[in-house]
């Protein structure tokens, strides 16, 4: 450890310690003095022994944070006895990870702890009672004959069943065999049977049957696996990015990498962006790895979630699959973290701490020596840029499995459709292709790119979008009729005519998935139609039932939002229609072109994954926009990174968003003005390296009578923004004026402003 680091530690004399990891008690820590001899050994996550209570009995605790500030008189604070050295348990690793998240994403340590230890309370253990045959089979058969001669039919029936299968579940014996409790008790007394209770794990995959598929890698897949494993063996700890076109077989590569980790006695976490992807993903992994695979997601009961964490901690599982919360699975010997569809915004938390699963996975990998693998057909601009800079190892898969061709993509100009008198949801080309596919008994997916539907205003005649003159993002139409920039606060009245062509046909797109479903049923009355959106998937199992029905070809057309276009593999789908490509293109967010490109490319990738050629129809009012042109051509990064660098957006610069909220609008304004003043005065030396914008109204300036404003801080150096966040947090704690205002921080936001 460097002398500078030791000097820093000598300033921090106190450790806040958790003595009980049961999650109900996370709100309570106890402070201890750090003896000088232990200063360089104690940090968040370190297990320590401390004197506790009046008797000063020695107990284990975990350091949560190290601080210079004593909670009460220093002379009353007991010292830490010593550091426990027999290896840091998984709890210590997760606490250290929580400390890293708190530092890099903001929030309190308590909020971070409750994120990394996500099962909030210990659930009642579920037990299963089993009935076992006690004597050996030869003796039991002799006893069976005796019972039959005495016409003790119930006892004989139970003994006969146990000779066929032992043990039997207690419920099976009482309900299916119709054996009374008194008979069971009598047979126990004669020592013919024994009744035992064992821990029964709630298993969300109980009904799943292993089909035992064998994965054979093609040369391209094997090359990727060999390249990644060779790097691991040589000590290259950089994350690996697999850039593979849709249908190139990334999942098979993941499974092979997991196999190599399991051979070393380690475990694997596979992150997927949405619950909707769980069905097919889990099926493939379960067929490969069997019952040592499990899942985590928000639709599971608290008991199911608690049991999966406990099974993982006890070494009863090898692979955990789930959205970002699965990252905190308490595997004792984690070997690899795989993040599929790594570009997805769902990996960024929208609650404090606003962590990104990708960055947090890399941090966890460093803490426990696990590898990190990222995969996507459309990598995020951040990840691809890091790969180009050499921070990640880049592996590319440019062809589909079995040399299947990528789909043919047609771009339809909706302005032309309008001029030709077609005002319907479906273009002429898409309608004709749908008719053709239905006649051929092939399947169709219709995708409505609905993200940001409440936002931008455009001209239907020429495609012009009304933009902020200062920020190059679209203006949003508010209920009061004003067009507002959610970035800098610029306002103007709603336009009556297009400023470019003079057309009065100016407005927003109104159609939703339900309206589209009704229209499609009218146009194709004999077609079997399914709709998949938030409304149809609210109930538990909603995703699975719809996807299963479509996979089994019980429907001809699947209509949905972005949840239908990610990661699903339907071999009979030969046509994908993207109904309104513009809807995510002009929301008030610098990431809008990237999101549009990713969604369009992912949607197009659902077509032609079987043996038949696929076709894609992209309907748009702006066919010339680079995100739409490049989606059709599978090229995007160079143009987008140029704009990001020019406009000082991530990943070339970084952004800190300071959110302020209060019931009183004036207090929010005053708070943001004060925070901006603090930045300008407290960071005067660093000021020239910062770009401060705002404050401005949030995208939704009032929710439930809570007023919201945002302040933006940009810098090339991420750590400079972390320093700014830490300084602001200190000022907020010191100044009572902030007590009536909620302040939150968000680094490199993913979901608009």
Give an overview in words.
The chain has a seven-stranded parallel beta sheet, with helices on both faces. The chain has a six-stranded parallel beta sheet with strand order 16-26-25-17-24-23, sandwiched between helices. The chain is globular, with a radius of gyration of 30 Å. It has 753 residues and is of the alpha/beta class. It has 22 helices and 30 strands. It has five domains: 3-116, PriA, 3(prime) DNA-binding domain (GIY-YIG endonuclease), CATH 3.40.1440; 127-199, no CATH class; 219-401, P-loop containing nucleotide triphosphate hydrolases (Rossmann fold, 3-Layer(aba) Sandwich); 404-453 and 509-637, 3-Layer(aba) Sandwich (Rossmann fold); 654-747, Alpha-Beta Plaits. Helix 2 (90-105) packs across helix 3 (109-116), helix 4 (137-149) packs antiparallel against helix 5 (153-164) and helix 18 (592-604) runs parallel beside helix 19 (626-633). A hairpin with a 2-residue loop joins strand 28 (691-703) and strand 29 (706-715). 34% of the residues lie in helices and 21% in strands.
């Amino acid at each position: 450890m460097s002398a500078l680091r030791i000097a820093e530690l000598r300033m921090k004399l106190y450790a806040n310690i958790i003595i009980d990891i049961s999650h109900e008690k996370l709100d309570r820590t106890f402070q201890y003095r750090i003896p000088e001899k232990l200063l360089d050994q104690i940090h968040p996550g370190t297990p320590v022994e401390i004197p506790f209570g009046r008797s000063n009995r020695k107990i284990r605790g975990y350091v949560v944070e190290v601080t210079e500030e004593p909670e009460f008189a220093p002379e009353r604070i007991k010292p830490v006895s010593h550091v426990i050295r027999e290896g840091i348990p998984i709890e210590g690793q997760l606490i250290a990870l929580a400390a890293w998240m708190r530092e890099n994403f903001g929030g309190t340590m308590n909020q971070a702890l409750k994120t990394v230890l996500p099962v909030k309370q210990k659930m009642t253990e579920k037990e299963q009672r089993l009935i076992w045959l006690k004597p050996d089979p030869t003796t039991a058969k002799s006893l069976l004959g005796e019972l039959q001669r005495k016409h003790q039919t119930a006892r004989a029936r139970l003994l006969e069943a146990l000779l066929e299968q032992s043990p039997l579940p207690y419920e099976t014996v009482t309900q299916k065999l119709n054996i009374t409790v008194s008979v069971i008790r009598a047979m126990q007394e004669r020592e013919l049977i024994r009744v035992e209770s064992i821990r029964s794990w709630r298993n969300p995959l109980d009904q799943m049957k292993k089909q035992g598929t064998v994965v054979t890698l093609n040369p391209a897949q094997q090359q990727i696996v060999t390249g990644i494993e060779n790097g691991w063996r040589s000590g290259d700890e950089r994350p690996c990015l697999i850039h593979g076109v849709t249908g190139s077989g990334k999942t098979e590569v993941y499974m092979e990498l997991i196999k190599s980790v399991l051979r070393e006695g380690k475990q694997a976490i596979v992150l997927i962006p949405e619950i909707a992807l769980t069905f097919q993903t889990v099926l493939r992994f379960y067929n490969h790895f069997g019952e040592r695979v499990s899942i985590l997601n928000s639709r599971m009961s608290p008991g199911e979630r608690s049991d999966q964490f406990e099974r993982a901690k006890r070494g009863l599982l090898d692979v955990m699959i789930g959205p970002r919360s699965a990252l905190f699975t308490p595997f004792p010997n984690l070997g690899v973290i795989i993040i599929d569809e790594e570009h997805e915004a769902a990996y960024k938390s929208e609650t404090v701490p606003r962590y990104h699963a990708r960055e947090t996975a890399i941090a966890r990998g460093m803490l426990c020596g696990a590898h990190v693998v990222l995969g996507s057909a459309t990598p995020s601009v951040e990840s691809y840029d890091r790969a180009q800079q050499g921070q990640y190892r880049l592996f590319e898969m440019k062809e589909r499995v079995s040399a299947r061709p990528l789909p043919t993509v047609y771009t339809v100009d909706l302005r032309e459709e309008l001029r030709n008198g077609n005002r319907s949801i479906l273009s002429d080309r898409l309608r004709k292709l749908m008719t053709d596919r239905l006649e051929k008994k092939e399947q169709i997916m219709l995708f409505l790119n609905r993200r940001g539907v409440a936002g931008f205003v455009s001209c239907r005649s020429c495609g012009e979008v009304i933009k902020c003159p200062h920020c190059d993002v679209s203006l949003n139409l508010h209920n009061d009729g004003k067009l507002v920039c959610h970035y800098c606060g610029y306002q103007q009245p709603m336009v009556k005519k297009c400023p470019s062509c003079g057309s009065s046909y100016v407005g927003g797109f109104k159609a939703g998935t339900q309206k589209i479903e009704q229209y499609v049923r009218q146009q194709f009355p004999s077609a079997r139609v399914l709709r998949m959106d938030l409304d149809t998937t609210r109930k538990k199992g909603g995703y699975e039932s719809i996807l299963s029905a479509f996979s089994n070809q019980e429907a001809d057309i699947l209509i949905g939002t972005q949840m239908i276009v990610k990661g699903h593999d339907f071999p009979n789908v030969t046509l994908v229609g993207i109904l309104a490509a513009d809807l995510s293109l002009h929301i008030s967010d610098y990431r809008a072109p990237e999101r549009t490109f990713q969604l369009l490319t992912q949607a197009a990738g659902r077509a032609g994954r079987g043996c038949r050629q696929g076709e894609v129809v992209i309907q748009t009012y702006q066919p010339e926009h680079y995100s739409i042109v490049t989606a059709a051509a599978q090229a995007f990064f160079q143009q987008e990174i140029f704009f990001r660098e020019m406009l000082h957006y991530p990943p070339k610069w970084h952004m800190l968003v300071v959110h302020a909220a209060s019931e009183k609008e004036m207090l929010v304004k005053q708070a943001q003005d004060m925070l901006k003043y603090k930045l300008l005065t407290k960071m005067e030396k660093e000021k020239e390296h910062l770009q401060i914008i705002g404050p401005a109204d949030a995208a939704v300036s009032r929710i439930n009578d809570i007023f919201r404003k945002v302040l933006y801080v940009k810098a090339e150096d991420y750590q400079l923004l972390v320093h700014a966040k830490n300084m602001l947090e200190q000022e907020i704690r010191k100044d009572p004026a902030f007590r009536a205002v909620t302040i939150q921080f968000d680094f490199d936001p993913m979901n608009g402003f």
